[in-house]
Amino acid sequence: MAEVASLATGGGEIAATGKDAGSDVCSAHERPRTPPGAGDLASETVVVLDFGGQYSQLIARRVRECGVFSELLPHDTGAESLRARAPKGLILSGGPASVYAPGAPALDRELLELGIPVLGICYGMQLLVMELGGQVEAAEIGEFGRSQLTVSQPGRLLAGLPSEQACWMSHRDIVLRGPPGFAELAASSASPVAAVEDEGRGLYGIQFHPEVVHTPYGQQILETFLRDVCECTATWTPTNFIEDQVAAIRARVGEGRVICGLSGGVDSSVAALLVHRAVGDQLTCVFVDHGLMRKDEGQQVISAFADHFKVDLVAVDAERRFLERLAGLTDPEAKRKAIGGEFIRVFEEQAAQLDGARYLVQGTLYSDVIESGGSTGADTIKSHHNVGGLPEDMDFELIEPLRALFKDEVRRVGSELGLPERLVWRQPFPGPGLAIRVVGGPATKEKLDTLREADAILQDEIRQAGLYGELWQSFCVLPDVRTVGVQGDGRSYGQLIAIRAVTSDDAMTADWARLPYDLLEQIASRMINELREVNRVVLDITSKPPGTIEWE
Ligand code: XMP
Questions:
Q1: pLDDT: is 18 or 504 the higher one?
Q2: Residue 57 and residue 198 in one domain
């Protein structure tokens, strides 16, 4: 979805768009997936079958926002496997294919006979209509973007909604006629049939996307489906999740000892707090300060966890070790490998000192679970050696309490657990830290310190301007070059700082943020005035693709 971040400027607002909102264009349906086994977490589940639409994850998230636990499964999940999950309803997502294309993902008829309500969205609706004898046809002109929906009869699904409303479309094939027994509820200028239902059989279809914000009544339509049609009771809340997890972790761990690698990021922080709430002092957190964090970040982690939450925290000041490993390394992948390797060594040393620790906490998220198969044949653009990415042969049983959660849910759970807002809403920060932001040369202590100070100025100004939360990431890069300047009456030959600020939904694509000129001027002048080594500041205006977010 194109999420629009509005960055206020002196004279008005400039919109920075995230990813292109054209047609459904990903092939997520080809990826193997492991279900999170969250059935035991929620008494009610609705399954979203992924036909490869770019909004499939979003549908699953929107369902959860209605208070109903959802699982996203591949479109070819069999009826047997669905029955075993006993979902209260089934949603068929959109997808990039035409229902007539050879090899297009098909709909297993058995799924319509499970005795649970089914809602088809976009491609999902077209499959449903075609399978049950309605008419779907390729259209000359596609319908992409905002459309006007005219409701002729609301039926059950559109009950209580205005007869004219905006909606978001993204399709080429159109439904000309609903299947026998179905009521046709609505149309748009390009879609003769844009919503259908057969209330008796519990089958529903909408051509538009209820999950995107550009369909203003979309969430209400999903709620009607979940609460009125599927009769879900909406008990999926952060509080209930915490209670369930705490009980499950206690039951599993008993008197055992648990260890957790804390990075300061929101995932490991929330996972650690959840486990701490469950088993208290049986948990020891290890925080490896590699000296590559942003200004004061290490201290913030220590004061939140050790001082405030009274977590048993081992903080290891390993800056010197990491700097030694980085000495002379210029190649980005070599830096990542050195940092990943050293992290494992430090962590293992600490773990060895903890007698009898049997469990290891990891902050794996549902999106990691969904993506775990990876797309076949994809290029490795960067090997993401996460701090916290530990080798598989470590002799621990894993506890992954966030395995069923999306990132926004992790944040809500974090807030509920009392994690400081600064940590809850922290922008993503790469595991190898500032080392991959000193580019084109080795990350030395001096350069890292300059970069850290420049970054602190940037963050400070962005926060003061109220823009921190609107940006996916904002940071500085220090290229290993010097440029000539004139400062005071003399020539200077100093460091260059590049500002990188991007908007994005998921880091797969990103746009450079249109920061207000006045703010940029203020940032540049502070950097040059306050940092002796810096005499030039530039702005990166590359989107992703073709650029990546980080420079290395
Ligand atoms: P790129 O630069 O590939 O980054 O567009 C996408 C997202 O991943 C983050 N990133 C990393 N995260 N270890 C990490 O944990 C890494 O080595 C790494 N490299 C990039 C980046 O900050 C962005 O959010």
A1: 504
A2: yes
Which listed residue (143, 184, 211, 550) is catalytic?
Answer: 211
pLDDT on residue 140 = 81
Please compute, for residue 158, the number of CA atoms within 13 A of its CA located in the half-sphere on the CB side: 30
544 lines ligand 1 (CB under 6 A): yes
The reply to whether 211 belongs to the active site is yes
Among residues 286, 275, 227, the alpha carbon closest in space to that of 248 is found at 275
209 in active site? yes
How remote is the CA of residue 430 from the centroid of ligand 1, in Å?
Answer: 5
- Within-domain flag for 547: no
> Are 166 and 19 part of one and the same domain?
yes
Q: Is 437 in the pocket of ligand 1 (CB under 6 A)?
A: no
> Does 418 share its domain with 369?
yes
**What are 61's two structure tokens?**
């998230």
CA 514 / ligand 1 centre spacing (Å): 21
Domains held by the chain: number = 3
Range of the domain at 409: 238-424
| 429 within a domain of the structure (yes/no) | no
Domain termination residue (choose one: 176, 208, 229): 229
Question: Ligand 1 test: best mutation among 268, 365, 367, 382, most atoms within 8 Å of CB?
Answer: 382
Is residue 187 domain-shared with residue 282, that is, in the same domain? no
**What pLDDT, in 10s, does the model give residues 406-449?**
999 999 999 999 999 999 999 999 999 999 999 999 999 999 99
For the stretch 165-189, what's the b/e string if a residue is b when 16 or more beta carbons lie within 10 angstroms of its beta carbon?
bbbbbbbebbbebbbeebbbbbbbe
Q: Determine which one of 66, 122, 167, 476 is catalytic.
A: 122
Mean pLDDT of 155-169: 97
From the CA of 62, how far away is ligand 1's center (Å)?
26
pTM: 0.84
Total residues belonging to the chain? 552
Kindly state whether residue 545 falls inside one of the protein's structural domains.
no
Arithmetic mean of pLDDT over the chain: 89
The vertex-26 CA angle with 221 and 364, nearest 5°, equals: 80
pLDDT digits (tens, 9 = 90+) for 291-340: 999 999 999 999 999 999 999 999 999 999 999 999 999 999 999 999 99
| 13 among known catalytic residues | no
- Among 424, 457, 491, identify where a domain stops: 424
Q: Is the peptide bond before 545 cis (omega within 30 degrees of 0)?
A: yes
Note whether residue 434 is domain-resident: no
